[in-house]
What does this fold into?
Amino acid sequence: MPFTAILETLVAAHAPAVRAAIFCDHQGEKVASCNGRLLPFDVDVVGASLAHAAGYLQAGSRMRVIVGELAVWILVVDLGCYLVVWCVPGLDLRCQSTFPGVAAALLAAL
It folds into this structure.
């Protein structure tokens, strides 16, 4: 499945604004990730920990949270699956309009 390629394209196309991305299923399990400049363990743990928050969002919705020095975006794809994107605050506002297209590409690949 092309999930990893979709995430790698997102991170590469929007560097240095986008630092990492993970696509998780409804239980918070990693489907695919692109760790970019973050530690793989950190990406996996934060991705999994956001399953509860993603469960409250409707498909197609998104939420931005500032965590430490990063802006974290949560986008609910469908069927409880969600995308988490780590960004540099401020720079993320320039590229966040592309996140729904990435979510649509992930949904198409399901």
Observations:
- The chain has one domain: 3-109.
- The chain is about 35% helix and 30% strand.
- The first strand starts at residue 18 and ends at 24.
- The helical segments are 3-13, 40-49, 51-55, 92-95, 99-109.
